[in-house]
Amino acid sequence: MADPTLTAHTLAHDDYDRYFDVFSDALMADRREQLRERFRPVFRPERSHGVFDGTELVGVGGLMAPEITLPGAVSCPLAAVTAVGVRPGHRRRGVLTTLMRAQLDALREAATEPIAALFASEGAIYGRFGYAVGSEEARLALPRGAAFRPTVEVDPRPVREVGRTEALELLRRVHPAVADQRIGWLTRDEGAWHARVLHEETGADGTGALRYAVHPEGYALYRPKSNWTARGPAYEIHVQEVAATTPRAYATLWRHLLDLDLVGEVRWNKAAVDEPVTNLLADPRLAVRDVSDALWVRLVDLDRALRARRYSAPLDVVIEVTDSFCPWNAGRRRLRIDEDGVADVAPSDASAQLAVDTTHLAAAYLGGTSLSALGRAGLVTELGTGALRRTSRAFAAEHAPHCPEGF
Ligand SMILES: CC(=O)SCCNC(=O)CCNC(=O)[C@H](O)C(C)(C)COP(=O)(O)OP(=O)(O)OC[C@H]1O[C@@H](n2cnc3c(N)ncnc32)[C@H](O)[C@@H]1OP(=O)(O)O
């Protein structure tokens, strides 16, 4: 139960500095002035909520508005929740709860984005608000020189390392073409490119400035981290993003990364769990993967969310849905999916064949978790024979969802 003295409302343009101070206090952030200026251009006061104790700003959270690619390669407006923090000394009295209430009510009223998503700092925070792990990511590590299968075609056209200005035109062309096809990838406007991807500052973890490796059909962005050992150089390559419109360009870019001199290991901390480079390796065991939660998804308007994506099989099922934090989603509805994977959703009085909370539908929404697995965990209840298997098959997606950036 939130402290009744707390109030929440959206902010004004000149609230940016105090918004940023609360957030960076909450994150115990260093390099504050650098970060303050990096994020200033993307501050949207009308999409940023503050929680106040009297006149003191004690909690903040923002919303960005990219589009996300859903199963079936369809695009959908996304409320991307970012920069959430509560000032130390004001915690565990409901500031975050007040913020989540204000955000979700505002999203419902605006009726623009049917789903919200975030990257969680800690895994125990957001489940109570109906967010669930919708995609995972792999910390992928590959040793220098890891060989590809003999049949892998690598383009003889060399990958070139270019400066930022030259790279930008290609990045702006390739990224949307890839993002349109990849479940979980987001569109980027100019502000997003600069704030989230192209900032040149040296990484806090000792990595160097961003480098741009380009091919006519793709690019790899990475930062080197130098390391000189008694046995010689063993640099780490920290990949920020690899995007390619053809399998050949993809393989060629990875070959370039794996063959860089001075290097011991190539790492990508936000790779897809089904990142294709692991399938290119002659010895797949060379790819070490450590999987963790990535995008947490909240179905804000369940019916619109269900209609927004495409499905893998026809279906006709009646589902009883619960949702304690967003009760407007609760109730029984019939979900019908046609041969093209397009959904129709309508209220229903018929007997339910499945019972599930929106949190668990959110986990299955991008296809990252199967409803069958959630059923085996006791989180989806089958009330009609075969309903879980059929619904799970329809919710399956063409590949693992992936979001290669953080926000
Ligand atoms: C999308 C993003 O930006 S992720 C970044 C989130 N920010 C951070 O992690 C910065 C550091 N942490 C903080 O600022 C705060 O501790 C927050 C935002 C995580 C939580 O804020 P609070 O105002 O303390 O949360 P609030 O009081 O509303 O807690 C609601 C419930 O969640 C629980 N909870 C809150 N934070 C946590 C946590 N880190 N771990 C486990 N449970 C938590 C509370 O115990 C409470 O449970 P209850 O309802 O059973 O009593």
UniProtKB/TrEMBL annotation:
Pfam families named among the record's database cross-references: Acetyltransf_17, Acetyltransf_9, SCP2_2
Residue limits of the N-acetyltransferase domain?
6-155
Write down the PROSITE patterns for this protein, in alphabetical order: GNAT
Signal sequence annotation: none
Tell me the Gene Ontology biological-process terms attached to this UniProt entry: aminoglycoside antibiotic catabolic process
One term of GO molecular function: aminoglycoside N-acetyltransferase activity
Sequence positions that bind acetyl-CoA: 84-86, 92-97, 121-122
Coiled-coil regions, chain positions: none
Please provide the record's keywords in A-Z order: Acyltransferase, Transferase
Q: Where is the active site?
A: 126 (proton donor), 407 (proton acceptor)
Return the similarity comment. Belongs to the acetyltransferase Eis family.
- Assembly and binders: Homohexamer; trimer of dimers.
Q: What is this protein called?
A: Putative acetyltransferase
From the broadest rank down, the organism's phylogenetic lineage runs: Bacteria, Bacillati, Actinomycetota, Actinomycetes, Pseudonocardiales
